[in-house]
Design goal:
By secondary structure, the protein is α/β, with parallel strands linked by helices. About 40% of the residues lie in helices and about 20% in strands. The chain is built from 18 helices and 18 strands. Strand 12, helix 11 and strand 13 form a beta-alpha-beta unit. The protein binds zinc ion.
C-alpha cells in the first residue's frame, strides 16, 4: 500500500478539539493511518518517485472523513422500486418478505455489491447491515475494500427465523475482525414485533456471553407501539428495558414514536440512536424527535435504511433532510445546524457503532476519507464549507474515496469494483422478482 500526500487541499477535520475548523494544507497518510496535516506546499512527480509516496493534487477538493451509514440492508437494493408508496407493514409483510424467501446466496452478494458501488460513489466508507446470508455481505466487503458492521437479522418469524442462530455463529466465527479489521460483527434482533420476550432474552444472554453489541429496529411506527402495548402493556422501549437489553451496547434504529417514559429510559441508559429520515418519511412512519434526543445527551447517527424504502443510499441526502426536517417541524431554523448533521454522519455515527479512530481527520486515525469536488456551480462561491456540504452538495460531487489508506475511488472511477458487471449481475437477479418493463415503441412499417 503506498503512502499518500494529498496536497494543497481544504480539510474539514471534524476534530472534536477544534470545532468549526476548516484547514488549508497537506494531508499525510502512512500505512493506512493519518499522520498529520502540514502547511500547504507544492510537489512534483520526481519527488514522488524518490519518496515512494503517491501525491494527489487536492486543490479542487474538500477532504472530509468518510460517511458512516448506521442502518441499512444492503442487498435490498435488488428490490429498489418494486413496492413503493405503501405503509411499512403492507410493504414489508405482503411485498418484501415473500420475495426475501426466494433470495439465494448470489442474490445477496450481487445486491450488496450494487449497494457498495452506490455508497462508495456517494462518499460512504462504513456501512451497517442487518440481513441474512450475511457471509455474502462479508465477502463483498473483503473484495470492495469497504468497512462494515454486520449482523444477521434474527426474529421468530419469516426469513429471520430460518437458520438465524447458525448463520450468526458462522458470521462471528468466520468473519469477526476479518478484512484487515474492517469487518465488525454484532447481533441483530430484528424488532420487538418479530422477537418474543423469550427470544430477546436468549439473544441478551448470548450477547453477554460473546460480549457483542446489538442493533434493533425500535419504535419505528405507531403500529409497532400500539401492537406492543396491546400485547404486553409495555412500549417497545419499556420492553427492552425490562429485559435488561440496555445493559449492553445497543444501536436503536428509527425511534420515531417515543413516550415520556421511553425518553427517560434513553436518558438513563444512553443507547445509540440511528435517525433514518428518508425511510421514515417515505414509509409514512413519522418523524423522530431528534432535537429532544440530542438535548437528552444521546448520540444520534444517520442511516439510509434499505434501498427498497429510501430509494437510494446517499448519505448527503440524509444529512440534508435531517437538518431541514428538524427546522421545519420545530419552526426553528437553528435546529440541527449543518455541523450537527455532519457529526451524525461521521464521528457520532462511528461512536455509535463502537469503531475506534474513524470519523475524524486527526493524527493517529484510520485514513477513511473522501474528496468532494468543490469546483461545481452549486458549491460556488464556497463561503461556508460545512453549510455547503449539507445544504448544497450532492453525493455525486464525491470523486475520491479512501478506506484504511486504500483508494477505492479516484477521479470518479471505482478502483476495486467492476461496476458494469455488478449492475448486470444485480439487474439479472432483480428482474426475476418483478419486471414492470419499459414499453417499446412499435415502429410502423
Ligand atoms: Zn431497517
Amino acid at each position: 500500500m503506498p503512502d499518500f500526500i494529498i496536497y494543497n487541499t481544504t480539510i474539514l477535520s471534524m476534530d472534536e478539539g477544534k470545532p468549526h475548523n476548516v484547514i488549508q494544507g497537506n494531508l499525510h497518510i502512512k500505512d493506512g493511518i493519518i499522520t498529520g496535516i502540514a502547511p500547504p506546499s507544492l510537489y512534483n512527480s520526481t519527488e514522488n518517485n524518490k519518496r515512494e509516496t503517491a501525491l494527489i493534487d487536492g486543490s479542487n477538493f474538500i477532504i472530509m472523513p468518510g460517511l458512516v451509514n448506521c442502518h441499512g440492508h444492503a442487498a435490498m437494493s435488488l428490490f429498489r422500486g418494486i413496492a413503493d408508496d405503501l405503509p411499512l407493514h403492507e410493504w414489508l409483510i405482503k411485498n418484501i418478505w415473500p420475495k426475501e424467501f426466494r433470495l439465494k446466496k448470489e442474490d445477496v452478494y450481487w445486491g450488496t455489491m450494487l449497494s457498495i458501488a452506490e455508497m462508495i460513489r456517494s462518499g460512504t466508507t462504513t456501512f451497517t447491515d442487518m440481513y441474512f446470508l450475511m457471509e455474502e455481505v462479508a465477502k463483498a466487503i473483503e473484495v470492495s475494500g469497504m468497512r462494515g458492521v454486520l449482523s444477521r437479522g434474527m426474529g421468530g418469524i419469516g426469513i429471520m427465523k430460518k437458520n438465524a442462530w447458525r448463520e450468526t455463529n458462522n458470521l462471528i466465527n468466520n468473519w469477526q475482525g476479518k478484512a484487515n479489521g474492517r469487518i465488525k460483527i454484532i447481533l441483530g434482533p430484528h424488532a420487538v414485533y418479530t422477537c418474543s420476550p423469550d427470544y430477546l432474552k436468549k439473544i441478551r444472554d448470548f450477547a453477554a456471553k460473546v460480549n457483542l453489541p446489538l442493533q434493533i429496529h425500535l419504535s419505528e411506527t405507531k403500529w409497532e407501539v400500539d401492537h406492543s402495548m396491546k400485547k404486553y402493556g409495555l412500549t417497545p422501549v419499556e420492553m427492552l428495558n425490562n429485559l435488561g437489553i440496555f445493559e449492553h451496547q445497543v444501536i436503536c434504529s428509527h425511534c420515531v414514536h417515543l413516550s415520556i417514559n421511553d425518553l427517560r429510559i434513553f436518558e438513563n441508559k444512553k443507547p445509540g440512536i440511528v435517525h433514518n429520515p428518508s425511510s421514515n418519511l417515505k414509509l409514512g412512519s413519522g418523524i423522530a424527535p431528534v432535537k429532544t434526543l440530542l438535548e437528552a445527551g444521546l448520540n444520534v447517527g444517520l442511516g439510509t435504511d434499505g434501498a427498497a424504502s429510501n430509494n437510494n443510499l446517499n448519505m448527503f441526502e440524509e444529512m440534508h433532510i435531517a437538518s431541514l426536517l428538524a427546522k421545519g417541524i420545530n419552526n426553528d431554523p437553528t435546529q440541527i445546524p449543518a455541523r450537527t448533521s455532519l457529526e451524525m454522519a461521521t464521528c457520532k455515527g462511528a461512536e455509535i457503532l463502537g469503531i475506534q479512530k474513524i470519523g475524524r481527520i486527526k493524527e493517529g486515525y484510520r485514513a477513511d476519507i473522501i474528496g468532494i469536488n468543490k469546483k461545481r456551480p452549486h458549491l460556488s462561491p464556497l463561503h461556508e464549507v460545512e453549510a455547503q456540504l449539507v445544504y448544497s452538495a450532492i453525493g455525486s460531487d464525491v470523486e475520491l474515496v479512501m478506506v484504511d489508506g486504500k483508494l477505492l475511488m479516484n477521479k470518479g472511477e471505482l478502483l476495486t469494483l467492476d461496476e458494469e458487471r455488478i449492475m448486470h449481475e444485480a439487474e439479472k437477479r432483480a428482474f426475476r422478482f418483478k419486471h414492470k418493463g419499459i414499453t417499446n415503441l412499435k415502429t410502423s412499417e
